[in-house]
Amino acid sequence: MSILKALSVFIIALWLAACGHATKNGVEPTQEGLATKTLSAEEAEVEQQVARISEELKDEPTVKDWLLVGDGNMYLKRYDEAVSAYREAYILSDYAEEPKRKLKRAMFLATIALSK
After folding, report:
1. Among 57, 63, 106, 116, which one is most buried in terms of CB atoms within 10 A?
2. CATH code of the domain occupying 37-115
3. Closest by alpha carbon to 71, among 109, 115, 15, 16?
4. Which residues neighbour 23 within 8 Å (Cβ) at sequence distance 6 or greater?
5. pLDDT averaged over every residue in the chain
6. pLDDT tens track for 13-43
7. What are the boundaries of each domain within the chain?
8. What is the per-residue pLDDT across 50-103, written as a single tens digit (0 to 9) for each?
9. Exposed/middle/buried for residue 92 (C-beta within 10 Å: 0-12, 13-18, 19+)
10. Is 65:57 a contact under the CB 8 Å cutoff?
11. Rounded Cα–Cα distance for residues 85 and 56 (Å)
């Protein structure tokens, strides 16, 4: 998993560098660029919610909250973190079907992300 995290950090750094380079060269934002900024605000909101729920999980872990953390990480395309959250939900739920299905999907997407 640490290789995936390192790769994710590298990709994010490249993306941020590319965005900064376009801004420094005076390129005007397009409608698509403005939509990306809105999406970033949505991502920030999801990230805050995931952090808040993760804190609550320290005191009282529930299947519902682990699923929410997993869903948030899937939205943010943090598949390795989603796998961890769904795994916790799956175990805590005594191996229920919904966490199992979500865990399988997250594992599949994490594997694809690794192969790219």
Report:
1. 106
2. 1.25.40.10
3. 109
4. none
5. 81
6. 555 555 454 444 444 545 555 555 566 899 9
7. 37-115
8. 999 999 999 999 999 999 999 999 999 999 999 999 999 999 999 999 999 999
9. middle
10. yes
11. 13
Residue by residue, what is the 3-state secondary structure of the chain? CHHHHHHHHHHHHHHHHHHHHHHHCCCCCCHHHHHHHHHHHHHHHHHHHHHHHHHHHHHCCCHHHHHHHHHHHHHCCCHHHHHHHHHHHHHHCCCCHHHHHHHHHHHHHHHHHHHC
Q: How far apart are CA 85 and CA 79, in angstroms?
A: 10
Instruction: Identify the residue whose tokens are 């060269």.
Output: 25
Whether 114 and 2 have beta carbons less than 8 Å apart is answered as no
Task: Extract the tokens encoding 113.
Answer: 């992300």
Q: Which residue has the tokens 């590298």?
A: 10
